[in-house]
Amino acid sequence: MGERRSACLLAVAVALQAAAVLGGGEQRSGGGAALLDPRGLEKFVDELPDMPRLRGYGVAEGGALVAGNLTIGMYDTTWKFHRDLPATPVFAYGASRETATVPGPTIEAMRGVPTHVTWVNHLPARHFLPWDPTLTTAAAPGTRGVPTVVHLHGGVQHSTSDGHSLAWFTAGLAATGPRFSPPPYAYPNRQPPGNLWYHDHAMGLTRVNILAGLMGAYRVASPGEEAPLNLPSGEAFDRNLVLFDRDFRADGALFMNRTGNNPDVHPQWQPEYFGAVVVVNGKAWPYLRVRRRRYRFRILNASNARFFRLRLSAGLRFVHVGSDSVYLARPVATDRFLVAPSEIADVVVDFAESSAGAAVLSDDAPAPYPGDPGDKAETVAVMKFLIEDAAEPDTSAVPAALMPHYPRPDAREAATTRRITMYEYAKNGTDEPTHLYLNARSYMDPVTETPREGTSELWDVINLTDDNHPLHVHLALFAVLEQRSLRRVDEFRECMVHRNDARACGIDRHLAGGRRHVVPRQERGWKNVFKVRPSAVTRMLVRFKPLSSGAASPEESRFPFDVTTGPGYVYHCHILDHEDNEMMRPMKIVR
């Protein structure tokens, strides 16, 4: 008992010292300025910006493509989110302080051509947003500076370049985390063409640093494979849309709560952050002038916790061509769709299908998602499209087949089956969460998942919580095979909390007769994020080998780097507030 008390006292001392270093956000988070009423901001007055584009490759004499070398900084600067808001203090990525943007520049890479990025931390000694030192947090006692580390989400890279949450570093490398890897980060880009994004991944600070502005889009292109598809292309007709929600104070400062839902346990942490202002490409409720033709929109949900259920007015629809980082085999048309935090929907919209002069993109997803049964969510605007009157020739198309040559998911190839259980723990006598675990273990507990390179595994993900959790697995791709609801879930949850043994708690009995849920057609391909339904079991085939066309040789079933070395990989819920409070586990790949 004495040793445990000493350890607790040491942990508190370290947390207080870290808080003194990073600060509590009192410097520039708006002080006592009132919370902004978003109804006072006029919608559709700012034009949608296209973020700066950085080429992630070089061109040698003769036109051959060679590895690219970029230096991208993280800067303490300001950003205008709305015409009528004062400039807002933010953290932003950019090639320089003057060109830093929120979101950051779009990196354009080429398949098979490496991109090397030196990420440089120029952030100040103290954070301008409040954060919670009682979480397991990237902070070194006795040093000053805001820790950061960059993860390329959806990227297939060595773990030394994966942005491990304990590989953080402060300005000037004055302090580094225990899994730090020196720059530059190497991205081989030896993966199928598709959509990725980069963002901060520092332990315990991810939700705060991304809220401050540290995120950006990344594309892997393959002209030889993509040009024959004849999808809309070019900077005018192929646009990234980065969606997120924020709250502001009247002076323009970003607002984040200072008081937690369980302040005697976690002074600042709350289970989810939701803002009342919807932001697209750094502008609140923007507009975009479009021609009466097809456009391609790569839609990323970069929110901390908000799900978006998107719909277009004026009779327009979406045609999905990709999900996360991989093209679909065939296009899928929908009138509306749900996109979770960190998910990417790659869609084509044909504005010639409507005679209207404008169309509004709107959202009606409950927050938190899925909400309580019977709750009716408010429909809110996201952005507006102003459609030109004149029709014009459009040589682009959506083909009947996209990339059907990727292997189809086959459960028979699984080398083993694992059960991953999602837990939410609450303070005694309340429903207020204190932390969330995977398999009843904290992030800092020893590794329990050791997949073998070149194999696939079946993962049965058991969600015992009331929330939908977007599960993200680093390095791997996966395909969802089925989702089944649990029966008498309270009884099963009670047993699992005490025993953490699905078989002993009779999981087969609780699944018997449970409802089977249809996986949306646009989400049946290979993904790196999936929405794990509450009170249900989601079965997924997780692929720990490269995604290649047709049957792969033993050599092609290995990654182009040694996955067994380095700090390793992780899997986690991508609701950032959950990830920061232990809903993440380490993963070690073996041979």
Total number of helices: 6
Q: How would you describe the oligomerization state of the chains in this entry? A: single chain
β-strand number:
33
Q: Termini distance?
A: 41 Å
CATH architecture descriptor of the largest domain = Sandwich
> At the first level of CATH, what is the class of the largest domain?
Mainly Beta
- Any idea what the shape is? globular
**What's the alpha carbon Rg, rounded to whole Å?**
23 Å
Mean pLDDT across all residues, rounded?
93
- The amount of helix comes to under 10%
| Estimated structural class | mainly beta
- Specify the CATH homologous superfamily of the largest domain: Cupredoxins -  blue copper proteins
Here the CATH topology of the largest domain equals Immunoglobulin-like
| Low-pLDDT segments, ≥5 res | 1-17, 26-30
Largest sheet: 8 strands, mixed
Protein name: Multicopper oxidase LPR1-like
InterPro entries: Casein_CS, Cu-oxidase-like_N, Cu-oxidase_C, Cupredoxin, LPR1/LPR2
Function: Multicopper oxidase that may play a role in the maintenance of inorganic phosphate homeostasis.
Pfam families: Cu-oxidase_2 (PF07731), Cu-oxidase_3 (PF07732)
